[in-house]
Give the backbone structure.
Amino acid sequence: MSTRHLLHAMLLCAVPALSGCGGDNAAQPAKPLGAAALAAIATDPGVPREALALRIDALFADEKAGETRALLVLHGGRIVAERYGAGYHENTRFAGWSMAKSVTGVLIGLLVSDGRLRLDEGVPVPAWQRPGDPRGEITLRQLLQMRSGLRHSEAIDPPYESDEVRMLFLVGRDDMAAYAEAQPLEAEPGRKFEYSSATSVILADIAAHTLTASNDPAARRQAVADYLRTRVLEPLGMRSAVPEFDAAGTFVGSSMLNATARDWGKFGEFLRNVGSVRGAQIVPRVWIEFMTTPSPRNSGYGAQLWTNRPQSDGTEMLFPGQAPANVFACIGHLGQYVIVSPSQKLTIVRLGQTDDKATGVGDRAALRARLASIAALFPKD
């Protein structure tokens, strides 16, 4: 997920509204704007219609940005742009990958608001309850902010040695929580930020332990599925959403929740409205504020959400310095984004395939630059 700073700077020169590096033509596709591109834009999107169509067309046409399969823009709660790549449409369910982590964060927030979990106490992980086990000191807050101290290596080469690959697809696939919870500490809890898909699976397992005393996989699966459906997915209107579970009945809360672009947009709008839907407060405002607040060990990350600040290692996941500071996002493998800008009343959903590294199908810096150019059209409130 590292940024190539030189390439990033060159790409930003193609986005004059953000960088001031050049003329407007740099951000436009070489071919004239087609009728299909303009048809994807609402009659009155709140910004110049053709300019928005041009920048979205540029995103779909830019090979460096990878393959965009769906792009949805909501402004003030209204869809103002919606476009799909060939073979995809409004009823296609898209894998959110790590965007599922943000759904898991909301799931945990509901259990906290119900009084069934506490942020700054030890968590109900049976494997950590033996006397003298230092992992018993890990708190829910530390897990949510990716600073548990548990040993983990994410997205390393070769992939088959990467912990999230081993957990999801290899030795841990039948009981992912057992794999994640078996890891020893490599740092004192709370002291070190370590992005970890295993951590979000642990959170999903905590939800299961909280909702049922049964270890039967079917009972665990049913308890979490019912809670997710009745407390999150149905109130948000995310009727297409399909959460997946492993053989042990644990929700794969790190990466396996599929939904249409419109339903991912509903999740973004729910976050933009600080946990409410049509005036109904689904999760307390304070919980969404917690999720979007920069965490102590990495200001670029909140609690199962990314913030618009540089990462602790200096890399960038969004557009720090080029967009409002209160922008935040759900971000998934291969360039899945739900970007929320509260001060612009804006939610942008991008689904597709862009490699995390500057090799293969597209480059994440190029994709971010294109998304930033779209966001820059919308004024602050």
